[in-house]
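Replying to the earlier thread about multi-chain prediction with a worked example.

Input:
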Amino acid sequence: MTAYIIRRLLYTIPIVFGVLLLTFVLFTLVGGDISIEIAGKGATAETIEEIREQYGLNKPLFLSWDSQFINHFKNALTFDFGRARDRELIIDKIKRGVGPSLALTVPMFFGVVIISISLSLVIAFVRGSVWDVSAVVICVAGMSIPYLSFILFGQYFLAYKWGLFPVFFSPDLTMAQNVALPVLIGTAAGLGGNIRFYRTVMLDEMRSDYVRTAFAKGLTTRRVLFKHVLKNAMIPIITRVVLAIPFLFLGSLLLERFFGIPGLGYLMVEAIGSRDYFVISAMTYISAILFVVFNLITDICYSLADPRVCLE
Amino acid sequence: MSEHQQIMKEVPQPVPKGRLRRAQSSRSLWADGLRRLRRHKLAMVCSAVIVLYFLLAGSIHLAELCGWRVGPMLWAEQVGQSYEPPSSTNLLGTDIFGQSVLRKTLYGAKISITVVLCASLVSIAIGVPLGAVAGYFRGFVDEIIVWIYSTLSSIPYILLILAFAVVLRDKSLLGYKLTGITAVYLAIGLTSWVGICRLIRGEVIKHKDREYVLAAMSYGCSRRRIIFKHLLPNVFHLVIIDFSLRFVAFIHAEVILSFLGLGEADRPSWGAMINDARIELSRGVWWQMVAATAAIFLLSLALNIFGDALRDSLDPKLTNDQNKYE
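Result:
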């Protein structure tokens, strides 16, 4: 096990290198020198030169110990991302945003996972009936509605028209009051695709021989579903659930923008608006690191859930 | 019944020549899949809806090329007062500038369909050859390609698209300036080839040792010929299935990018319409929002159902691809 984890950690090195290479190519080589943009219209050559000095844009790209290429790697590996365009340290911005983002995404995550897995078990129980067919139809319809429409209509009807929830984030209210509606909307929007996915997983298991055997020896349906099917369906469930966790830290771009929640999604939207490459690059790097780590956790969970999987 | 009679009964009776020939010629994978698909009534309805959207987008492109000034092409024309509710003259009402929402919605189809097609082309052009080469040659080439796509797939999809779209916007490539919409489909295309590359690589590895490939090798076919003439046609149906389901994701990505102001700036698109509706809804102006949502919903629904039916009829072994969006 330990040997496996160490080997997997070594395997992440090229991936992290690749992500840093990609952000360098994208934001430094393709994105180019944005010092003129930062300085704004009518800036003097001196101001521009000063900005280039601050962001290290006047250094050589490659082939030097102090080149932009080397510095990009050095900064990322020490989590020193420099300053955003509004002069605040990027790492501070990110630290500040994690809290509200998690407050929004964690309840949403648990809501979606618990509801969709239990509903999909129910659907697997009534498979082939009218209920099953109508559930699939509703799921596909739910998947086809754009996310933006879920948010806009939810905000309009539930908050603005009927006044059940606050329309916009306000620091006076508690966090729970602020995120209640976004969580509700996010959960509703996520259910369609998830239920359909888990239903397919469950039905694939239902066709297996061991299920027929379990029924044949006279077990109750509930026991077969929860004891046998759920356990065997664990591998795809783990993959989907654990790999969704890194996204929780990212927050939700659209929900945070609509409800003015000052999380990481909002930070991203702001950075896109002001073309702040430094923030976007840092966010890309951090999310990739999280993804790689949780990928490793997924693999370890496999061996916990299924003794047949061996980590050698 | 004597033994002799029983044996005689089992001997196949001579059949007319025409029927024999028909029984012997086996149907191809495509004909077989199409036959199964045609029996699926709902899928046929959905394919009609999809064809309608594509025809609409195609005719708008044609009209733009020929300079015809009809229907949705006149979206910029003022047809009434600002924010006129739906009526018999303006079926879906008007927006803030008094432009017809119906025309804008129809015109939005062109943007979405163009993005979907161009992004798919970019992503097939990258993903399929890379996947085939990686699967066929293995070794060092394979490792490099796997490294590239595992790097890309370790970055959350929507973040990656946004990063590409932000950077590519207003850049010039080979002397051609990338305006909003070009950046969008390049961004989607350059980020979404990973799935198809992985799929093709896996399939090619499976097919590589089959008899037909070995036969082609023994004929002395070049490696290029084996990959592109023998292997790819045998796995290409997977590309079609994959993309019929991926279209929905592309459409929704375009809507989100347009909404965030990274898409088409001067012409109406569904994402921009939803962005307008953000402010309008509080004034009770719901028609622009409903029109854009309905247009996206109908197309996505048709694509979802058709994609599933296509997958079931062409390759029943494939399982549900997970939805990559929030």
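The radius of gyration of chain B is 25 Å.

Feel free to reuse this layout for your own posts.
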